[in-house]
């Protein structure tokens, strides 16, 4: 686990708990349950409902609910996912959901949860202090660059070094191609973490390259969705007993749709780019065509791509120009929207993930 990222997650968790007065809110709920046991009446019942409603409302508004998947994964690995936000709300709801649960039992379980939350906050605070003493700090992308994260699920085989290298090669090739097309440096790619059969790769890229990546993801998803729609139409035609030659022609069209779409996308990106040498433009167009198909294949198995920018004070001497600032705001907004996109649980089209044979 990356120490700088752990520091950031723990610090944000502590701040979140303080912002909603989490220990006090849980204590208020426990006190309300105790009062309803000691003096069961309409007044104590109402106090319990108000305390529960207030707590639920605060937990729903926790920033951690909308953290990027990579950050949520670190929160879970730190054992904190069920002591804040929706994770904690679900635990409390599970305790109170059954009519068969006695109030005394619920009181005991809520007391256990309350103690655990306080213990986790204390442990997180001590860990942050220890990491701080070791001069570990939260890692944020440089002010002039965006951070892009590729989350590759366990459905992608990363069981061997060769398979991991294949995924790193795909990501590196994609980013370098987009960087060159946009006239930017190639940036740096680093592995953040490999755990539980999944792979999380974090890279930094210039704003223009990051935006190009987000645009490419949007276009790849559109092409992927179009194939799904076409296959649905194909099934409907098959059920309608359409002549086989028509079905064969439609199948051929569907099978080649992503290849055609990837070629169109690559040509558009290179045309809008800053490379002037015709030979190199053709090479980049071929590379991006392949990368687009491989990107669609990974989206099909549940891969997600995030983008984030640093809003910390700039360490550079020169402030961002108007164009850079506009790109920064766009990436932040679109990155937040992409993080809310549901992740696929299983492949839909079963596209090839092979870098050397993406057909």
Notes on the structure:
This protein has helices at residues 3-19, 22-38, 42-60, 69-77, 85-96, 103-133, 161-181, 207-239, 244-255, 257-272, 278-300, 322-339; strands spanning 145-152, 188-195, 198-206, 304-309. It is of the alpha+beta class. The chain has two domains: 3-133, Up-down Bundle (Four Helix Bundle (Hemerythrin (Met), subunit A)); 145-339, no CATH class. Helix 8 runs antiparallel to helix 10 (257-272). The longest helix is centred in the middle third of the chain and has 33 residues, at 207-239. The radius of gyration is 25 Å and the shape is globular. It starts with a helix and ends in a 20-residue tail after the last helix. 33% of the residues are buried. Residues 313-317 have low confidence and may be disordered.
């Amino acid at each position: 686990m990356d120490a700088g990222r752990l520091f950031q997650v723990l610090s944000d968790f502590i701040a979140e708990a303080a912002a909603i007065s989490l220990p006090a809110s849980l204590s208020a709920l426990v006190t309300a349950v105790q009062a309803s046991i000691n003096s069961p009446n309409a007044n104590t019942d109402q106090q319990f409902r108000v305390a529960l409603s207030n707590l639920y409302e605060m937990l729903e508004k926790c920033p951690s609910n909308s953290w990027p998947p990579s950050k949520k994964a670190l929160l879970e690995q730190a054992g904190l996912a069920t002591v804040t936000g929706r994770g904690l709300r679900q635990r409390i709801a599970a305790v109170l959901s059954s009519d068969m649960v006695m109030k005394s039992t619920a009181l005991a379980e809520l007391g256990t949860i309350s103690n655990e939350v306080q213990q986790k906050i204390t442990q997180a605070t001590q860990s942050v202090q220890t990491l701080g003493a070791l001069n570990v700090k939260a890692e944020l992308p440089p002010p002039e660059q965006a951070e892009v994260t590729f989350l590759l699920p366990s459905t992608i085989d990363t069981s061997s070094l060769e398979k991991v290298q294949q995924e790193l090669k795909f990501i590196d090739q994609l980013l370098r191609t987009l960087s060159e097309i946009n006239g930017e440096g190639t940036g740096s790619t680093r592995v953040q973490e490999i755990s539980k059969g999944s792979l999380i790769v974090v890279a930094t890229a210039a704003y223009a390259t990051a935006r190009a990546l987000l645009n490419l993801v949007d276009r790849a998803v559109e092409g992927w969705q179009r194939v799904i729609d076409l296959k649905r139409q194909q099934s409907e035609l098959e059920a309608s007993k359409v002549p086989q030659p028509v079905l064969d022609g439609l199948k051929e069209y569907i099978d080649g749709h992503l290849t055609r779409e990837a070629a169109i996308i690559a040509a558009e990106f290179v045309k809008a780019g800053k490379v002037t040498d015709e030979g190199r433009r053709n090479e980049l167009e071929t590379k991006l065509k392949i990368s687009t198909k491989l990107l669609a294949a990974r989206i099909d198995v549940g891969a997600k791509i995030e983008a984030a920018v640093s809003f910390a004070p700039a360490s550079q001497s020169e402030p961002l120009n108007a164009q850079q600032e506009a790109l920064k705001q766009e990436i932040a907004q679109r990155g937040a929207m992409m993080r809310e996109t549901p992740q696929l649980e299983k492949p839909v089209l079963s596209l090839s993930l092979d870098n050397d044979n993406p057909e």
